[in-house]
């Protein structure tokens, strides 16, 4: 299987802080990858590098054959093919749900409005919120907002979906509805990278789990291998921590 | 005597209207220019380029740190030194444009910086370029913060047009000066001048108050 995302010796610093250390990573097309690790381990930074929300200082990142590390790379082309879901949703508060989802298809892909609306309604239906198309984000619960954000990401029909702790800002009773939507996406064959501590989700759908600590990839493995037989002490203590939590 | 002067004042009232017209003209043209320029500067001031930010920052500081009347004199007297013979009216517009855009720049930059980084990132992540991010996501939200102080600034700018009387632009305040020489009832003359300014600025003050209430919700 060809790799859709590739990190080669990637290094990143925030000022003096070395946040990504010699990251090497290949993500084959269609893989569901879960990234976990303690806070400050660099996992969010790692996926934010994929669509260049963060610049790297050393190494190479190739996404969809586009050299992301290259300063002259077309960000618009790169990002049009990657959906990104934030921890804090970041819906546009001045737009309705439907307008939120239609904005990128109309502005970036120059799609005509009627077609964009059809697609937006389709995606909204996908996340179970078709009846909320006219609502404003502030009128929705956190879980609903995050589902709209997922629909917004899907509207560009991306090859890759990135999730940066999509359930961490949610009340416990809303986590399930968001995870359900994400599980449903798996059948579409998109490549998905999910930063999360949701072990249930990882075990259910992930092909591979990647454990990070202090800017390094400590270990990778299938979900059952990783969670049941972690190879490193650091991974073991992390797993016991999220279990007892 | 009072009644005599009053009837004289009524007689030359068209002269005041001319002054009011000139004030409105200076105000209107400079408000439009200041707004355009102020938004452009404000957008760059909240951008990423450090050199550009610093240059604009210095420009704003200079304008805020010197009296407007001095700025007017500098423009009026320096340009001939450089071989540019500028008449009073265009010199007044230039001075107003430079001064007003600096203040509006700060208002716009403040509004833009009030929008969370996440909004920029969400827009960028979906493929929107910088102009599209501003046009569709950032500015519509920032306008809520910008609008009330912007209209308030308009009121200040309209009043500041009185300063350009010093270089001979025949606007409302200058009309007052010229009139008071012939009708030595200073209080009467300048009350009229004040009332005419108030006629233009009061609706804007009301608008500013209204916007402040509406945007606060």
What does the model show?
The complex is a heterodimer of chains A (245) and B (217). With 245 residues, chain A is α/β, with parallel strands linked by helices. Chain A is 37% helix and 26% strand. Chain A has a six-stranded mixed β-sheet with strand order 6-7-8-3-9-10, with helices on both faces. The mean pLDDT of chain A is 94. By secondary structure, chain B is mainly α. Chain B contains nine helices and no strands. In chain B, 34% of the residues are buried. The model of chain B has no long low-confidence stretch (mean pLDDT 92). Chains A and B meet through helix 2 and helix 3 of A and helix 6 and helix 7 of B.
Helix-strand pattern of chain A, N to C?
Answer: EEEHEEHEHHHEHEHEEHH
Shape of chain B: elongated
Distance between the termini of chain A: 37 Å
Strand order of the largest sheet of chain A: 6-7-8-3-9-10
What's the domain count of chain B? 1
Mean pLDDT rating of chain B: 92
Most extensive interface = A-B, 22 and 17 residues
The arrangement of helices and strands of chain B along the chain is HHHHHHHHH
Please render the helix and strand layout as text:
The complex is a heterodimer of chains A (245) and B (217).
Chain A: E1 3-14, E2 17-28, E3 32-36, H1 43-50, E4 58-63, E5 66-67, H2 75-80, E6 82-85, H3 97-107, H4 113-126, H5 142-154, E7 160-164, H6 172-185, E8 191-195, H7 199-205, E9 208-213, E10 216-221, H8 223-228, H9 233-244
Parallel strand pairs in A: 3-8, 3-9, 6-7, 7-8
Antiparallel strand pairs in A: 1-2, 1-4, 4-5, 9-10
Chain B: H1 2-11, H2 13-45, H3 50-65, H4 68-81, H5 88-113, H6 117-125, H7 130-160, H8 172-182, H9 186-216
